[in-house]
Structure formats: structure tokens, C-alpha cells
Design brief:
Layout (H helix, E strand, L loop, with lengths): L7 E8 L2 H9 L7 H16 L8 E4 L5 H7 L6 E4 L2 H14 L4 E8 L33 H16 L3 H16 L12 H6 L2 E3 L2 E2 L9 E9 H7 L4 E10 L8 H6 L2 H13 L10 E4 L6 H8 L8 H8 L14 H4 L6 H12 L12 E8 L2 E8 L1
Parallel strand pairs: 2-3, 2-4, 9-10
Antiparallel strand pairs: 1-7, 1-8, 4-7, 5-6, 8-11, 10-11
Length: 385
């Protein structure tokens, strides 16, 4: 994995109009489809990078669109391409650049999930054909993602004494960030009392523990490191990547329910910290894939930012807000900014390192750790100046 350190850098980021499209969809409109949202984000990323599309020779698309069709829509005649989720697309792009398959790669994602009514639970749960853990318990009536995470968090509470009020610090901190983010859908701050007063959706998870569901697109452009320095005055390098899978019992949720992904997270932490020369003290911002708030305390413990069973105390006393010991999901994340399945977190990582986040900017931010722990897989990227 160290071979991929500073091999490539992000030179452009862009996204669609999440806020405007949120309002249009709620008004009954259907502003665009998957490809249109991706194309809108790509145009903005291209402008941000300041390059012509003819310079791009690699393309990775998100799982909601076809590679060949997206290349046509974007008018890209690339020589190499693939399809992947957010975190793996970054790693695959860096790998392709390292191997010489491409030297400028566009990553493009679009999703019209809100306007077309995509289901993430029930008998037609999206992804159930690929990730059997989503539907494993369907014969017993438990199909919603929220129910699965509620079960997980209940066991976590019973083992370590973490409370629902402790978990509330995730939603409160992320609303602080989104309130200062003009691209965030939810801009109103909330207090711990607001959180505790919100209704349960699946006990012990409340309304504010759930991600948004909205339409939108995200795009990033990565270039080979030396080329990135010539093309951009503000490249953000991929400093380290790590991945570890837990496949034993994965379709029955065993990795999630028994050890909360911790063995995989600890193995990834060794890859991105122990072997790279970086340490947790070098990280200025943490970004966590947060389909549900529960991901955050599990990541804090699994990656070693606090001790096992100490995430409640860490969030309560040290803090994960903008002025806390470890600012986390500073743009609002999936809970409050936009649900782009990990793609919007990549943009926030880049903007924090560039120092472009305005009122929510973490001072002197030089490195950001992004982690995604879903479906039995723990994956991380460290971005740096």
C-alpha cells in the first residue's frame, strides 16, 4: 500500500446543486437522472481543475451508472475505465496511475435516488442482490438498514455503557458544520436536547441518526503527482490508503454485530499509520462514511483515536465538533450535508486541505483521514497537502 503514497493528487472537485435539487424534488419535479447529475458535477470539477476534457484518459463511474454510457454523455474518449464506489474509486484511480494505465482520471457519480424512490429496505432493497447482509434477515421481517444499525448500536451500548445522549453528539457536531456550509441541505443547528426530543425511528436510533436521501452528483479529477503539480497550484495528494475485508459470516452481519468491524479497522490503521510514518496526531480532520451516526463512535475506537469503549466519553468531553479535539464530518456528512454515498466526503477532504471551507475551515488543516466501514469491508484514505 505504501507504493501508492503520493503517487497521485486530486486537482479538481465538483458537485451538482444539492440544495436546489432537494427543493425541486420535494416540489414534485425531477430535475435530472443519474447521468445528468454526474455530468453536472463533472463540468464543475473540470472547471475547478482548469483543464480541458481531452486531457483526461481514465474514467471511473459510480455503481449507479454504466461506464460506457457515462463516457459518451461526458464526451470522454478515455483509454481506461472502471466502476466502483467512492472510496474504492479513489484507490483504483491511484493504482491505475501507478501502473501507467492512465495519468489523469475522472471519477463521476450521479444518483436520482430521491426522485425515483429508491428503496434501501424492504423486499426490493437496493443492493440486496450484491450484499446479502442487507436482506439476510428478511424472512424474519427485519429489512430496513435502520433496524440493522439499531441492533448493532444496542449491543454496543450494552457492552460499553455508551448512551443515546453520547451518540447525540454526532448529529449535533455535524449540524454545526452543515450550518456553516452553503452546499448543505440541513442548515439549522440542533442541541443535544433537540436530539433527545426527536422521535425514535428504530429504537435506540432517532430521526437525526439517519442520513438524508437526496438526488445529486459528485466528481473528482486525479492526476499523476508530477503532472498534478504542473496542472494545479493546489494539488491534494493521496498520502496513504488501506483496506481489510472481513468475509467470515459477512452475509449474516457477523462482522458488524460481534466486533463492530474492529479487527478490520485495526488492520487498516496499521496500514495507513504504522507503515506510512504517519500517526493519528498528524490527522487534523476525520471524515466517516455515515449512513447512520453509529459509524462515528465505532470508527473513533476502531482506528485508535480513543480507547475501546471510550468513544462516548471522547465525543462528550474531547469533542468532534469544529472546535473539538478531532473535528469530524465537518461539512455535515450524510446526516446533514448530502447523501452521496461517501462521494461528498471526498470533496470535503480536499477542500479542508486546500483551506477553502470558509466558516467551517479547520485551522492549519494539512491531513484528513476518510474511512468507510460497510458490508464487511474497512477502507481508508489519508489526503494531504
Amino acid at each position: 500500500m505504501n507504493r501508492l503514497s503520493r503517487v497521485a493528487a486530486v486537482i479538481g472537485v465538483g458537485h451538482s446543486d444539492w440544495v436546489g435539487d432537494w427543493a425541486r424534488v420535494r416540489a414534485g419535479e425531477r430535475p435530472d437522472d443519474n447521468y445528468g447529475y454526474g455530468a453536472s458535477a463533472f463540468r464543475n470539477a473540470l472547471a475547478d481543475a482548469g483543464i480541458d476534457r481531452s486531457r483526461i484518459n481514465g474514467l471511473i463511474v459510480g455503481p449507479t451508472t454504466a461506464y460506457e454510457r457515462m463516457a459518451e454523455v461526458l464526451n470522454l474518449n478515455v483509454r481506461w475505465g472502471d466502476q466502483a464506489d467512492a472510496v474504492l474509486s479513489v484507490i483504483q484511480a491511484v493504482t491505475a496511475i501507478e501502473s501507467g494505465l492512465a495519468d489523469v482520471v475522472a471519477l463521476v457519480y450521479g444518483n436520482d435516488q430521491r426522485s425515483v424512490g429508491t428503496q434501501y429496505g424492504g423486499p426490493q432493497a437496493m443492493g440486496g442482490d450484491m450484499f446479502l447482509s442487507y436482506v439476510y434477515h428478511a424472512p424474519w421481517g427485519m429489512t430496513s438498514q435502520g433496524a440493522l444499525y439499531a441492533l448493532m448500536f444496542r449491543r454496543f451500548c450494552e457492552l460499553y455503557g455508551v448512551t443515546e445522549r453520547d451518540l447525540g453528539h454526532v448529529a449535533v457536531a455535524q449540524r454545526e458544520g452543515s450550518s456553516r456550509n452553503p452546499n448543505a441541505i440541513m442548515r439549522k443547528t440542533i442541541s443535544i436536547e433537540d436530539y433527545m426530543a426527536a422521535p425514535y425511528i428504530v429504537e435506540p436510533l432517532r430521526l437525526f441518526d439517519y442520513c438524508l436521501i437526496n438526488d445529486g452528483g459528485v466528481a473528482l479529477i486525479l492526476a499523476e503527482a508530477n503532472l498534478a503539480r504542473r496542472l494545479s497550484g493546489r494539488p491534494v495528494f493521496v498520502e496513504a490508503v488501506g483496506r481489510y475485508d472481513l468475509n467470515q459470516g459477512a452475509t449474516s452481519l457477523e462482522p458488524r454485530l460481534t466486533e463492530f468491524y474492529r479487527p478490520a479497522q485495526q488492520a487498516v490503521a496499521e496500514q495507513i499509520f504504522g507503515a506510512s510514518g504517519l500517526d493519528r496526531k498528524d490527522i487534523d480532520v476525520l471524515q466517516v462514511y455515515d449512513s447512520f451516526s453509529v459509524h462515528v463512535p465505532l470508527a473513533l475506537e476502531g482506528y485508535g483515536y480513543c480507547g475501546i469503549g471510550e468513544s462516548g466519553k471522547f465525543m462528550r468531553e474531547s469533542g468532534i465538533g469544529l472546535a473539538g479535539a478531532l473535528p469530524t464530518n465537518t461539512g455535515g456528512g450524510h446526516l446533514s450535508e448530502s447523501y452521496m454515498q461517501g462521494w461528498n466526503h471526498q470533496i470535503e477532504c480536499v477542500r479542508q486541505v486546500r483551506g477553502e471551507c470558509g466558516d467551517r475551515q479547520v485551522p492549519d488543516c494539512r491531513r484528513v483521514h476518510y474511512c468507510s466501514d460497510v458490508a464487511g469491508k474497512a477502507v481508508s484514505i489519508i489526503y494531504g497537502a
